[in-house]
Amino acid sequence: MSVYEYTVQTIKGEEKSLQEFEGKILLIVNTASKCGYTPQYKQLQELHETYSEQGLFVLGFPCNQFGEQEPGEESDIESFCELNYGVTFPMFAKVDVNGEHAHPLFTFLKKEAPGILGSKGIKWNFTKFLIDKSGKPVARYAPKTDPLEMKNEIEKLLSE
Length: 160
Known about the structure:
This is Glutathione peroxidase. Pfam families: GSHPx. The chain has helices at residues 40-51, 74-85, 104-112, 151-159, and strands at 7-9, 15-17, 25-31, 56-62, 128-131, 137-141. By secondary structure, the protein is α+β, with helices and mostly antiparallel strands. The protein has one domain (3-159): Glutaredoxin, CATH 3.40.30. Strand 1 and strand 2 (15-17) form a beta hairpin. The model has no long low-confidence stretch (mean pLDDT 94).
């Protein structure tokens, strides 16, 4: 299995198959607009601008499961990201990442790239999953990890 087998809904409500990203490097992030880590949007956008032409796609998935830090509607989230951080990378509809209503994509990611000590659950907003060109998760990063700290791993995957 790979991430390419999943369909997601864009922030504008359109269905999108992740198959469209086949052969690309993906950085999948559960995001929130009212979180202490929200300024990471700036670094995520920087990664997108630096590496998108080489094949990196940052994919943002808003989530309201942690401290209700993403309370807005999709249109509010999209406006916030564009106005405050100049986000141009793909954003998707709000999802649950844990629990019985977790999006199947995140169930797959948690299984394939568990956290510290093998934990499956996502602990907070801005957990990041790095996906290789074959659609396999190769790394999971904690919310506190600054996106720019992943540059070496991203460059390595882009060169393979």
